[in-house]
Structures are given as C-alpha cells and as structure tokens.
Design a protein that fits this description.
The protein is α+β, with helices and mostly antiparallel strands and 517 residues long. The protein has 4 helices and 32 strands.
Length: 517
Amino acid sequence: MFLWAATGAGVLVAAMAFSFVSGYSEVELFPGERYFLLATAVVTVVVSGLQGIVAVVMIVLDHRENGVPGSGPALSLGLAIILVFSAGAGAVAEDVVRSPQPAAEHLTTEVEHPDLEIPAFVEDIDRTLDLPDGSVIGLQAVASGVLLKLDDGVMVVDPVTGNELWRYRLPGSVTRSVITPDMGSIVMEAYMPSRDDDPSPDTARVTLDVGTGRILHRTKDRQGLLKSEASPDSHDADAAEPLDGESVVVRNEEDVPLEVYGASSGALLWSLADSSECTLDESASNIVVDREVTGDHVFVQMSCFEGSGDSRRRVPQVFAFASVTGELMWTHEIPADGYLGGEVTASTDGSLLYVLVAYREDQGDRSPRRYSTIDAATGEEVASGDWGDFRLSGEPGEGELWKSVLGNGALLGSDQALTLTDAYGSPEHTLELPPTDGHRRIVTTDEVLYSVEWPESGERSVDLMVYPWDGSTPHTIEDVLDRPLAEDEGAGIRVVPGAVVVYSVESNLVTSAVTVR
C-alpha cells in the first residue's frame, strides 16, 4: 500500500514540476534574451520521476515474486489509473497555483535620485549605454535622466554614470507608457496576450515614481487608455474612483470630441460635447483641431459656431480647461476669415501657450501663419505676430519640432534656415545649417541646437553637430557612435537631463546609444 501511495505522490509532484517548467519557458523565453529555469524545479522533475519509476518497478517485482493469481490485468489497470490521475491532478494543480500572468520584474532604488539639469553645452563622448538586447523601442527624457521604453516595460538610466536606476518589466506583455507633464512619474499600461481560458485579459496599469521606481498606484481593468486604436471600457471608466493629484490622458473619439481620463485610475473625469461655450462644427473633419496637456490645464483649439440662421458663423476658439475637473478657465477667440486650422503648444514650464493659426490669404504659394502667445493662467494675450512658413522641411517628423524646444521659445524654419523665438514668440536667433546630401535629425534647447547627420551610402558614420544659438563657433563630434551604421540603421538624438543621447535605430528598435557631455 505504501508503494502505491509513493507512486501516486511521485507522479503528481513530477507532473506539477514539469508543468511549471513548461509554463515558465513558454512565457519568459524571448529571442535575443536568456532566462535560466529554476534549478530546483528541474531537480524536482527528475527526482520525482525517478521515485515514481522505482515505485512502479518494486510493485511489479513484488507481485511477480509472490505470484498473486490474476493480478496482472488488475495491476496494470491500477497503475495506469494512478499514473494518469496523478499526472492530470498535478498539471491542474500547478495551473491553478501558478498565476496566468508572470510576476513583474521590479527593481527599485532605495535613495531617490536627484533631478539632473539640461546640459548647456556638450564637448565629447562620455559613455556607451548598456541596453537590454532587442527590447528598447524608444527613449525619452525624465527628471532623473533617460527613460528606456521597453517592449515589456520601462527602465530609467542615469546618463552621467550609465547606471541603471530602476526597472519595471512584465515579461510576456506589450506595454505603452506616458510621462506626466512634470516628468516626475510614469504611467504604464501592460497588455497580456489572450489565452484559451482568458480571451480578453485585463489591462494592468501601473504608476511609477521617476526618482525611485516605487509603485505609486496599481490597478487592473478592461481599458486601454494609451492604445489609440482601442476605446476605453465605459463601465470600468465610470466605476473607477479618481485619485488625488493624478495626471490625465486626453482622447478623441468619433462620437465625443474630447474625453479626459485619470491616467492612473482610468476614471472618466469629464468629457466635452455640445455646450453653451461651443456649438460644435460637426461638418469639420476634426472638431478638435489640436490640443495640449500641462500639469494644470487641457488646452484645446476647436471650431465652433455662433448665432443661428443667416447670421450663423464659424468661430475658431482656444479653450483652457482645468485638467482634472474640466472647469472652463478662459477662452480665446481666433479671427475666422480664411481660417484653415491651427496648432497649440505650451512652453516647457507650462506658463505660456503658443497658438498658431493658418489662413487662406494669398502670399504667393504659401499660407501665412499668425501666432498668439497667451498667459496660460489668465488667457491674456501677451504677444502676437506673423511666423510666415514656420514648418521645417526634409526629414519626416521635423514639422513637429516647433513644439519640442527644451526651454523658452519655439523653433521655426525652412530648409537650412532655422529660427528660435524668445519666450513670447518673437524671432530672436537664426542659424544657417550647411546642406547635407544624407540624413539629418535635429533637437534643440533654448541655448544650443544639436544635429546628427549621416550619409545615404558608403561609410555611414554619424556626426554630431553642436550649434550655439548665440552665434559662437559650432562644434563637431565625428563618428559619435564609434562605428558605421548598418545598411538598415538610422540615427536619432535626444536631449535629456544630464546629457545628450545619440542612438541608432533599426526596425523601430534602438540598437545602441551613447551619451555626450
């Protein structure tokens, strides 16, 4: 009887351990990354399996030695039942005990990392960053350095020392993240793959402190606030409780022009439909022309109607709402004659709002652009003027660079002639960049413009050009990556607190990165 019990127990334990090993390898083994299975689990499989085999052999030998009549079929049937039942019970038990989602890989720092300063100037290559192989899909600036956006999480690195400060990864998931306007925290959503027993798994939403990596808030629901192709779940959004001091996520839906959600809680905070402040121009392809989110406000440029009948007219306006409550703080009316559209962006500190408007007035083959600089707190216009053709031309995405100045002002330009405005939007500095027959990427602060350039073919080394806005002598760092780019690689550049990061990209993955200080 003891041997029968040992047989069942051994097979059950072996099945549980084998199921664990199988599930572990299925979830966490990725191309380009190595994960070691737990040695104890492997040993358990081997020892328990041997225990079951020895028990079976001893039972068979005992029955042969004692020669129990008619025991052969009964013995075989009994052993088969024990083996099948024990193996099935072990696999089911392990599947119940083991979470269908793998545990998060979460490393934090005990001491909060101090905020770093944006560099005023850089001179030479400082260090090569150690990147997770085949996992980095983007880089962004945060208060403590550089955020590495991974396919399954986030990681923050100190660009001065090159040390990893903290990480949060959920193996097996696909993640998207957003940095709060003050760069002090990160909201990450993780989407798990569907399973046979869970075809629509919950979205895990985690809010992390930038300085330490500590979890500030964690929730699960059926929403995907950061997925542009998915609509938030109305039931979960209405049932969620807003959190004090949380940032917001703004979305545009087809039936509602503007919805604002708590970035951490997922709660629907407020929405904008037809209201007394704006009768929406539903004939417009985009009712919300542009929007900007700061720590305290949501700014929206929209096309509205005023009046009725023959006196009904289209009036484009800028609205400032309190980000959490949706309270209307102020409005700014835009002259409507010849209105084509516009954009809005805020200064780095959020104190000023730049409102850009395009008109149909004839200026040769260009549409004039008028700007207004508005006090973000009061809505008072502090400056206005004409920016002409402000769009940068050439590389994809350069048209949005005017929104990306770290510091005061906006970046304007055409071809190689670039202009930086002062804080109020008045053109202040101009640079003439030399022509290039290859590729160029640009990023700027209010003190220095940085450009990475590389040829289309041949020896595709990347050079970093440093152009001070005050007219000082430019500085060049040749072959900044210390290697030529591969045939399918490109380059990019980010200014982060503490350094300038130059990196290579292939198939939307960051393949290498260096810091320049």
